[in-house]
Amino acid sequence: MVSVLPAGAQDNPVCPDFSADEELRVYHEVNFAEVATFHVCWHNDPELIEATIDIEAVGSEGRIGEIIPVHPDAQLGDLINFNFPLDLASELIPPFSVIRYTWTLHFAESAPITLPAEEFFYVDDSIAWQQTTSADGLIQVYSDQLDVEIAEEAIGILEQSRPEILSYLPPETDVSKPIDVYLYPSSEQFLSTLRLTGLDWIVGKATPEIGVMMVPISNREQVTQDLQQRLPHELAHLLLYRAAGDAYAQFPAWMDEGFATQFERPVNSNYAQSLSTVNNSTQLIPFREMCVNLPVQPPEMSLRGYAQSHAVIGYLLEQELKNGQNGIEAVLEQVLAGESCIDAIEKGLGQSGEALAEEWVNQTQPQFPDPQSPIWIAIGILVALFMIIILVLWSRTDNTRTLGDFNR
Prior knowledge:
Immunoglobulin-like, elongated, five-stranded antiparallel β-sheet, alpha+beta, Glutaredoxin, 12 helices, 3 domains, 13 strands
């Protein structure tokens, strides 16, 4: 259940500038990362008992509902202002979300009325965003006014990677909707905003439900390399969502991330380093444990999740080039048919994620004995016992004296 601040309809019984000629007014006021206050103004005729408000951030889990009573001293015909303050700091609503809200008015002697839904774009206004648009109008990059050239470079990177990503997705994938990219001028500003959603460790963020990407300019000396790594990764998430629609939540998280990492240029070198000592699938995080989310903590476990997802999906795509199959599209088809994550993988690929990982290890990783396997543990114990026996016998040979020795 989402927590909310106490409602307050009692302090402002009269709406500012709300005249007797107006029948109804619904409006909101927003202070980014602080509070959003939702208002409904009404002449108390017919007489009101209470109002309820339903709030959702499109693409986020959970809804916020609150009942607001009318002021106890309100009289028939008074101007009433129901208002509800939503604590944005505690709700962790992602920036650039669409917030939708609906008021319902409950009357003393007549049926309730649900007002038409209102919505607004929850923009991070800490930066004076400058818009740069691609020639086809499908990519809109927002940046600080000093970073317009970087924004143009970002558009070029996205336009170059888009066809490659789409080649692995169904041909009916919707590419008609624009994609909004927010380039933060520094990592510090980016992380400050991301902490509002409870995250503070990622290098890029996509909200595919609303077609928004957030990426920082971390190092201006290597900005091209950073953008070539991050932008195609986030774009892959967005396009995969557009292929899956509402079924995107059921698509395996490890396949989603593994797919997105394929388009990083260059690929993060830490992936290979994380897997350099892996020579047995038992050393991997079980893929069935990464159906919903990859591990976040500790950092090395998070890296391992991305690394093995990247490696196994990369192996899958390489095999598909040989046999003409498309595993991403096959699993997506099963998800769209209503299959769960695990079943979608097994039906789409004909094997589990663990079996695919075993195949990848056997085909691509150095094959050294796994010292933690039961067989090698048993062999180690036997070797240790053998050495102990040899040492005991050696000791007896060196130090034991026979009766003949003493007679001499």
